[in-house]
Structures are given as C-alpha cells and as structure tokens.
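User: Reviewer 2 asked us to show a designed sequence for the structure in our supplementary figure. I'm pasting the structure tokens here. Could you produce the per-position amino acids so we can include them in the response letter?
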C-alpha cells in the first residue's frame, strides 16, 4: 500500500512474469500435474516420431492448458483478495475460471487422441 508505481523495463517485467509463473507452479497442484502430463506427452511425441506440424499442434495444446491454469490462479487470487468470505458470485467466478481450463484440457485430450491413435494402433498391430 502506498508504493509509487514505476513503469517497469522489459527485463523487470519479464522477471515479474517469471515470478508469477513460478509462484503458480510451486503452489498449484493442478499446474504441477499439467506440467507432468505435458512432459509425458512430449516424450510420447518424440517416441512416436510425430511430424513437424503435429509437434507444433501438441506444443500449442500444452501451452494453452498451462497458460489457462496460470490465468485461473490469477483469478482465484483476485477473488480471494476481493471476497475472502463465502459469496455465490465469488464461487461462480472461480468455477468459470476453472471452466476455461477445462475447455483447453478437453481440446488437448482430443488433439492427443488424433495425433497418437495411429502410432499406438500401429504398435498394437505389430505386437498382436
Ligand atoms: N469465496 C468463495 N465463496 C463461495 N464459493 C467459493 C469461494 N471460494 C471458493 N469457492 C468454491 O470452492 C471451489 C474451490 O475453490 P478453491 O479456492 O479451493 O479453488 P481451486 O484452486 O479450484 O482448489 P485447489 O485449492 O484445490 O487448487 C471454487 O471453484 C468455488 O466453487
């Protein structure tokens, strides 16, 4: 309170954004899970030798989920600051923010199916 706002330089802005992202990674279990799942998907992509376009689409899908998670955390933090007590609208705001994450997660699952189903089917046909 009472601190004078100084326009940050680019490196300072980057540092603040990094700090926000790391805070989310350290404190939010869902973000940790999605980072783990994203890494597993990248390993699977490497193993299945997906095409360049498929790499780009997978990276977009993973980035969308993690980006939405970080934004969800920002909304939760603001809601907790503005309304620390129970309020239906505070709850709804958090549910809506979580809904945005769900949209990106569903999208990522569909993309995962489309990209990985053919190589997994090929593997299954080789095995049986
Ligand atoms: N102030 C509030 N008033 C009413 N309902 C709330 C309030 N805060 C949270 N809720 C309800 O509880 C749910 C979980 O809230 P929480 O703050 O724990 O978020 P979360 O991040 O989804 O959970 P987690 O702590 O596991 O990460 C919200 O989606 C909302 O439905």
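Assistant: Here is a per-position design you can include in the supplement:
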């Amino acid at each position: 309170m009472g601190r004078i706002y100084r326009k940050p330089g680019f490196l300072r802005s980057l540092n603040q954004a990094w700090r926000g992202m790391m805070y989310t990674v350290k404190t939010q279990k869902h973000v940790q899970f999605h980072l783990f799942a994203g890494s597993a998907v990248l390993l699977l992509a490497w193993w299945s030798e997906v095409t360049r376009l498929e790499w780009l689409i997978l990276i977009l899908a993973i980035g969308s989920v993690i980006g939405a998670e970080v934004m969800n955390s920002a909304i939760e933090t603001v809601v907790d600051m503005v309304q620390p007590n129970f309020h239906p609208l505070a709850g709804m705001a958090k549910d809506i923010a979580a809904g945005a994450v769900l949209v990106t997660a569903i999208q990522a699952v569909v993309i995962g199916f489309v990209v990985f189903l053919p190589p997994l089917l090929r593997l299954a046909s080789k095995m049986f």
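For the response letter, you might also mention the following. DSSP finds four helices and no strands in the chain. The pocket of adenosine-5'-triphosphate is lined by residues 28, 30, 76, 83, 86-87, 90-91, 94-95, 98 (CB under 6 Å).
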